[in-house]
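Thread title: Can someone regenerate the structure for this chain?

I was given the following input by a collaborator and told the matching structure tokens would be attached. They weren't. Posting the sequence so someone can regenerate them.
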Amino acid sequence: MSDELSAALRELAAAEATQPAAPGAEIRGRALRRRRRRRVAATLGAGTAGLTALAVALTLHLGGTPDHPDRLHPPAAAPAEPSLPSPTTPEPVAGTLDLPGRTLTFGGRPMPILWESAREAPATPTTSMTVVAKQEQRDLPIDIPSKDPAMVDVPYVVELRDGSDQPLYVGSFTAQLKSLTGFRVGGTLIALGPEDAKSFYARVGVGERISVTTGATPTSTPTADPSADVSVPGQGGVGEGAVPERGTAYPSDAAR
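Best answer:
Regenerated them for you:
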């Protein structure tokens, strides 16, 4: 090849050559930065892999895989400390019914019991009964062993029930009850004087509690109180005429 042809080819190559986009120093700087980024990425990747391996090892050591049945159930709670029983507070009562003392006290007012047939009253010495119903007039059964049972029409009836759902009735003394005074009877009736029965009926509320004392020595013959002189419509006073010997009608030995 002649010298002229070689010179012409070099000139053509120099004219067509692409000039670098950046100086050589900048190109070298870029290459250096790329190498640094690669090293940092490789280091971080190795660290992440190490942490992952450590977490898996800890999981297997502490309880297996996260889906292991033992890890799906929360740990059992520690047993609670046993609580001490709180002292019981006596239930408030609105009145007291003292069968041995033949007195019903309500609102601070003592009312004498004139007639009683409480052989089926609560057998415990003292119990608490709840007022469950009130009726201005009610027929109540009276059991007379020597005769047929009698139904007695009693005004101003207040029905009490104990914890065993046993009833006890408080009502007004009537001429029909007076006629049964001499008989041995059974039932669950306490009779007050007409005014006392009406007052108790009007003032006591359903849901109120009455403390009932039955005493310890039962007898079985109900009588009117000979010391009381209570007039019954259509009859003389209770104290008029012959009055049987005073007795009570608490639960008999057989009933207890």
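The chain is about 30% helix and 25% strand.
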